[in-house]
UniProtKB/TrEMBL annotation, chain A:
Cofactor(s) this protein cannot do without: Zn(2+)
Keyword Nucleotidyltransferase in annotation: no
Binding-site residues, Zn(2+): 308, 310, 313, 339
Naturally occurring in which organism (per UniProt): Cerrena zonata
Highest taxon listed in the record's lineage: Eukaryota
GO cellular component: cytosol
Domain spans labelled tRNA-guanine(15) transglycosylase-like: 12-371
Subunit text: Heterodimer of a catalytic subunit and an accessory subunit.
Enzyme Commission number(s): 2.4.2.64
GO molecular function, one term: metal ion binding
Protein's name according to its UniProt entry: Queuine tRNA-ribosyltransferase catalytic subunit 1
From TrEMBL, chain B:
Residue stretches making up the tRNA-guanine(15) transglycosylase-like domain: 20-335
Pfam families associated with the record: TGT (PF01702)
Organism: Cerrena zonata
GO biological process, one term: tRNA modification
Record protein name field: tRNA-guanine(15) transglycosylase-like domain-containing protein
Organism placement in taxonomy: Eukaryota, Fungi, Dikarya, Basidiomycota, Agaricomycotina
Alphabetized SUPFAM superfamilies for the sequence: tRNA-guanine transglycosylase (SSF51713)
Length: 414, 424
């Protein structure tokens, strides 16, 4: 991997970089859409490519169950299997295994789990996770980590963190022995729950291994923890992680979360949210989410967003037409998925441009003003951005402050 | 007013009065432009709620076999006034549904021709139509208003086809003919000339009604070509015969099948195999009195073999592709051509893709059921017997194969629906 920082925001910790992988160059910060089972639901690989996206994520857990490694080997890896000639990242399979498998038992050797199909017990070791990800052949692969819910407290959090470090060492060994280090890049995952001391210890250990890992992910978050705690952990990790390695925040997809993370120094993020919410009929816009099931759009002949370059809006698909087919025709899910992925790309592309131009703080202020408007800003965003020198309230002292998550929804009224 | 231009390029040598034929179709628009030519026999794409199922607009654009799409209007009756009638611009239906008028012909019918559910009775004032909020009564005046507001290229005149529970009496069939004729005459009534300039007058297609009785079918067609006099003629002035206002004919097979199934079941218990020529004969009864120079459309043919029978028997020009689209929906990739290819033929492309399997009856299947386990190992194109089109070669079987089908219902029909729908 070649990783080069092109520009830094003079105020926040945000940066623009270029990451060159075996399947091309990806500009960071970026959002990675999730193609769980080798397909972004509803879109062909060619359509995703046409949206300008060049880095997507596959889930190892799902690919390992279906189609399975035998078929992926025959096909010559996941790139060829799904007809995707651009960059690809796979997770380790650990997170899905814990969240989707009925039975999981973590031992020092690995994670023992029962197959959701036949109940058969299977052991996923760090070495096995590497072997599977080598077969898949993604450009970025993730270490197997010992995942605990971010709401877990007590000794289990520390145990999982230390085990994650030991498993990182096993992953590094297996990866280096595979001879694939020139085409596949291993990322470590910082764990330690919501405990700053554990996070610090984990960071210290993992930074020691910096010469043997290509990048770092910040794991163990987005599991229902307080947002005010979430951003502090992100900040703590981003501040300490080596400057010359990409930083990946796992499971982040709301636009406001993405921009806060970017301001704190994060380069990459993934989430199923924009594609999943599209399938439920919600279009993302710079003025907040738009629930097309709502009757208020039934005879609205405007596109979702005027001037949006996505295939749906640029073709003139109206809100009224989308309202007519949403939840009843798969074509509505396709159209909204295309739009939402372009929206995510525009949020991140706009951030990159602003960082390059030295106007990122203003970009953040404009985004929040348009997106939340008079509904009020989430308090945690205000706090997080203050910590890196941006005061969202500077020009808008009277805006409402919403404690808690402060997520904006557009609920469908009948 | 745009007009549908149908050119017959060649007739087959057979010496029957209604012969198979080869032709082209295009639509001349007021501004002198015309839509791309459709070669006939060819296909009309079917739609649901105004979209081709499973295809996004970019896929519709890149699928050259989608040239003429029929839009059933009834799904829009869930709001009053129906939303497409409010769409601003000069081509409301094209704009609303996203089929550019430069590339696509749109026809508008009230009912979805593939919806055979039982419905409340029509009467002489209205037709019962279906939308997700329930049954709606649509009068001939409503229908004319909607069609003129939506400005499709072609509109199917309202006809009285009962979807009440079977069987239907002969008296009912007579009423159906009377109403359909009266409604067509009403539809062809001139628009006051003050409004003519603003209103676009779509071409008219007519459903050839008459049920299972050949004589009834013939008499409906005869009523189209007979010269009207007096008040009847005044109604459609300056036309003299209804047929002068009609651009094409539709043979709608679904209601015939619904009636026929019951009739057969009652009269010949245990013997449900129908003579496949029965429907062709009924179509012939309808087409015999009518001129040869207009488009003939058949809806709800159920297999490629039946399509061939209708081409051979009564020279049908356009068929719906509902059958092929349904195959995609359930995970079947069609892979056949006519004439049937012998096992030794060099046409088979088997290094790339295996042929459809042969059943114990010795007949080869028409396509590949991608749910079958064996396809999960085939990292190849979808079809072995034809090479036209771009999509089959670029989409590998395995990625849309069993693993995918269960969990990726959005993904799989997309790729299959985009396959060329031609049969050769
Ligand atoms: Zn858009």
């Amino acid at each position: 991997m070649e990783f080069e920082i092109l520009a830094r925001c003079p105020t926040t910790k945000a940066r623009v970089s270029r990451m060159k992988l075996a399947h091309g160059v990806t500009a960071l910060p970026t959002f990675m859409p999730v193609a769980t089972q080798a397909a972004i639901k509803g879109l062909t690989a060619q359509q995703v490519e046409a949206l300008g996206i060049n880095l997507i994520l596959n889930n190892t857990y799902h690919l390992n169950l279906r189609p399975g490694m035998k078929i992926l080997k025959e096909a010559g890896g996941a790139h060829r299997f799904q007809g995707w000639n651009h960059n690809l990242l796979t997770d380790s399979g650990g997170f899905q295994l814990v969240s989707l498998s009925k039975f999981t038992k973590i031992t020092e050797e690995g994670a023992l789990f029962s197959s959701p199909f036949d109940g058969e017990l299977t052991m996923l070791t760090p070495e096995e996770s590497m072997a599977i990800q080598h077969t898949i052949g993604a450009d970025i692969i993730m270490q197997l980590d010992d995942v605990v819910s971010s709401l877990t407290t007590g000794p289990r959090v520390g145990e999982a963190m230390w085990r994650t470090i030991r498993w990182l060492d096993r992953c590094i060994e297996a990866h280096e022995q595979s001879g694939k280090t020139d085409v596949q890049n291993l990322f470590a995952i910082v764990q330690g729950g919501l405990d700053p001391d554990l996070r610090d210890q984990c960071l210290e250990e993992m930074i020691k291994r910096r010469d043997r890992v290509a990048g770092y992910a910040i794991g163990g978050l987005s599991g229902g923890e307080e947002k005010d705690v979430f951003w502090r952990v992100i900040k703590q990790c981003a501040d300490k992680l080596p400057d010359d390695r990409p930083r990946y925040s796992m499971g982040i997809g709301f636009a406001e979360d993405l921009l806060v993370c970017v301001a704190l120094g994060v380069d990459m993020a993934d989430c199923v949210f924009p594609t999943r919410t599209a399938r439920f009929g919600v279009a993302l816009t710079f003025n907040g989410p738009m629930n097309l099931r709502s009757a208020k759009y039934a005879s609205d002949f405007k596109p979702i967003t005027e001037g949006c370059p996505c295939p749906t809006c640029s073709d003139g698909t109206t809100r009224a037409m989308l309202h007519h087919i949403v939840a009843l025709e798969t074509a509505a899910a396709h159209a909204l998925t295309q739009h939402n992925l372009v929206f995510q790309a525009r949020v991140m592309g706009g951030a990159r441009d602003a960082i390059m131009a030295g106007t990122f703080p203003q970009y953040l202020k404009t985004f929040f003003a348009n997106y939340f408007g008079d509904d009020g800003y989430p308090e945690w965003c205000v706090n997080a951005l203050r910590s890196v020198g941006v005061d969202l309230l500077e020009d808008r002292p009277n805006v409402k402050i919403i404690p808690g998550q402060g997520v904006k929804w557009d609920r469908a009224e009948p | 007013m745009s007009s549908l231009c149908a050119h017959v390029l060649a007739y087959s040598q057979r010496s029957c009065p209604i012969r198979p034929r080869l032709g082209t179709l295009s639509l001349q628009r007021l501004d002198g432009s015309s839509t791309p030519e459709i070669q006939t026999p060819g296909f009309i794409t079917t739609s649901s709620r105004g979209v081709v199922p499973h295809l996004s607009r970019d896929h519709v654009r890149s699928t050259p076999s989608i040239r003429w799409t029929n839009i059933p209007f009834e799904s829009f009756l869930d709001r009053m006034p129906p939303v497409p009638t409010l769409q601003p611009g000069s081509d409301p239906l094209h704009t609303f549904t996203g089929f550019p008028s430069k590339q696509h012909i749109l026809s508008l019918s009230l009912r979805d021709p593939f919806d055979g559910r039982e419905m409340p009775a029509n009467n002489k004032q209205f037709v019962s139509a279906y939308c997700i909020r329930g049954v709606r009564k649509v009068t001939p005046a409503d229908w004319k208003k909607y069609a003129l507001a939506c400005k499709p290229d072609l509109v199917v005149a309202l006809s009285d086809v009962p979807y009440t529970s079977q069987p239907h009496s002969q008296k009912r069939a007579t009423k159906s003919i009377e109403r359909s004729t009266a409604w067509l005459a009403d539809f062809l009534r001139p628009i006051p000339s003050t409004e003519e300039s603003k209103l676009h007058r779509p071409d008219v297609l007519v459903n050839l009604v008459g049920g299972l009785e050949p004589r009834a079918r013939t008499s409906f067609s005869e009523s189209l070509v007979e010269t009207l006099h007096g008040k009847e003629q005044e109604q459609i002035h300056p036309l003299h015969r209804l047929d002068e206002g009609v651009s094409g004919y539709i043979i709608d097979l679904l209601p015939l099948r619904l009636s026929r199934r019951l009739e057969t079941f009652q009269s010949l218990p245990g013997q449900t195999v129908l003579d496949p020529e029965t429907y062709v004969e009924l179509a012939r009864a309808s087409l015999a009195p009518l001129p040869q120079n207009k488009v003939r459309i058949a809806y709800s043919t159920s297999s490629p073999h039946e399509i061939l029978r209708f081409i051979r028997g009564v020279g049908i020009d356009l068929f719906d592709s509902h059958w092929a689209q349904r195959a995609a929906h359930i995970g079947v990739a069609l892979d056949f051509r006519f004439p049937v290819i012998s096992d030794e033929s060099s046409i088979w492309n088997e290094e790339e893709c295996s042929r459809p399997r042969v059943r114990s009856t010795g007949k080869r299947e028409l396509g590949h059921n991608l749910y079958l386990e064996k396809y999960s190992h085939q990292h190849v194109r979808l079809a072995s017997s034809f090479l036209d089109g771009t999509s089959p070669s670029s989409i590998q079987d395995a990625v849309i194969c069993p693993c995918e089908l269960v969990h990726q219902p959005l993904h799989q029909p997309t790729s299959l629906t985009a396959m060329p729908m031609s049969t050769t």
